[in-house]
Amino acid sequence: MRVSHVAEQWVEQTAGLTKPARVLWCDGSKAEYDRLIQAMLQDGTLLPLNPNTYPDCYLHRSHPSDVARTEQLTFICARQKEDAGPTNNWMAPAEAKTRAGGYLRGAMRERTMYVIPYLMGPAGSTMSRVGIMVTDSPYVVASMHVMTRVGQVALSAMRGDDDFIAGVHSLGDLSPDRRLVLHFPEEKLIWSVGSGYGGNALLGKKCHALRLGSAQARQEGWLAEHMLIIGVEDPEGRVTYLAAAMPSASGKTNLAMVESRLPGWRVWTVGDDIAWMHVDAHGQLRAINPESGFFGVAPNTSPKTNPNATRMVRSNTIFTNVALTPSGDPWWEGLTPEPPAGLVDWLGQPWKPGTPAAHPNSRFTVPVQQCPSVSPNWEDPQGVPISGLVFGSRRTSVIPLVFEGFDWTHGVFLGSAMSTETTAAITGKVGVVRRDPMAMLPFCGYNMGDYFAHWLSLQQRLTRPPRLFRVNWFRRDADGKFLWPGYGENVRVLKWMVERIHGGAPEVDETPIGFIPQPSALDTDGLALSTAHLREALRCDAGEWLQALGDLDEFYGQFGPRLPQPIARQLRETRKKFGG
Ligand code: OXD
Ligand code: MN
């Protein structure tokens, strides 16, 4: 492999700090992956699953205190606190290095330090970017093989000797007291110690593609977003591409590979979690999926909620923290209506009814190509043209099923004002409402006031700005029942968006929050949904909204002068339209 001098020096320096027994550069080959799997089967890091029903699938159990992203231990270490902004934890770079350096010193003794050159994005795309990470976890290496493109393909994409994001990862001693996930945007550097799980440890994903990616995107004039990418094919065979931001564990993977219930309509999967979007020379927004795998939430994935995912994880999949059946199949809540007898839970103990069998944030890691609905264009180096952007959140009340922003600025305001109920993807309380602008609250690597300004500024380069939509699949009626059936039926909402994008579906109500479809505008053929029910799902209530907008002044106020004036103006105007 051709290796950059800067990378070699940095690896040597890192080895000097962490003191591994050996250093091994990864080439990304199948043989390398197989060797890692064999070694992990031997030392018990992986358990084999039933080779007849789940060929080449494995189960990993993480440390029981290391099961989700730890936002409270995640820091943006910009030189100036203001550049991290009020929504990020901040630590001064020198202090961060002293603290984490203490945990990393000698942390790899008697371990192998794997060096993983990885490419985020398709080979040959000017939108793709390179990372080089070191880790002492073979599970992380195998997962990076699935989630990114590893080896020479990455090194060949470097545009200069130092054109890479550097990432140091060590399991440390896995103690939450000695766990830190640190981002140094000015140094293109990530340090993560003390966790072996998900976004804390697979550095390509949240740390690189979102936190440092978003900071780099701002400097270079593009967007790194927490968005799925899909192509929606209509009965005429036209494919309209959409990107949709949704908070973690809120059905993003389900929507990314949704199987349409509408005859003639079909959804093609480009990505399920992250979109990197550039404005091309013609002023068209184009998106790539920087990842090459899915790291999806297992619980509630079933033939009903996500048939494509249940098929896709039947081979070549690494499961983490799911339960195990006596015949060696993985199991999680929702997979089958009844739990099979004799389950072993995610901790490896006989399952006790009333306790979780799979951890609520248990996951599958699987290559994108295995998705039955994968788009033929998913690796197009030019990216796919985006005609609509969707902001979705999880709200029991207030937010209608779907509506459309008036224009780019108003749509950016809607995204910036998003709030959602928390899920098991992060440690902490589930179901608490918090502001989550563009579903990026935990992932924006710089001051979110500047982030809103960056979004607004793109408009001048867009000749045909995408339409911006807001969705909420999770609204409930007074009895606590979901108002919308969701899952495969969500294609009906996508159909409405596609019609709007192409100048159709004029039956809308103009409300203070945007255009809401009249019940007749949504195709509900074959659904047992009354108009009254649908009206409730689409209802916009002035009193509820004025209350919901109540704490936005405080949220926006934190950004002080960094809050763009157009956003403050949109809030004032919305209130005024509601009579507030
Ligand atoms: C994820 C997350 O893993 O958002 O995608 O937590
Ligand atoms: Mn995510």
Largest beta-sheet characterization: 9 strands, mixed
Overall morphology: globular
CATH class category name of the largest domain: Alpha Beta
Q: Mean pLDDT, as a whole number?
A: 96
Estimated share of beta-strand residues: 15-25%
SS elements, strand count: 28
As a whole number of angstroms, the C-alpha radius of gyration is: 23 Å
Poorly predicted ranges: none
The third-level CATH topology of the largest domain is Phosphoenolpyruvate Carboxykinase, domain 3
Q: Write the CATH architecture name of the largest domain.
A: Alpha-Beta Complex
Q: What is the overall number of helices?
A: 17
- Give the total of domains: 2
Structure classification: alpha+beta
Helix content: 25-40%
- The N- and C-terminal alpha carbons lie at a distance of 64 Å
**Structure ligands:** oxalic acid, manganese (II) ion
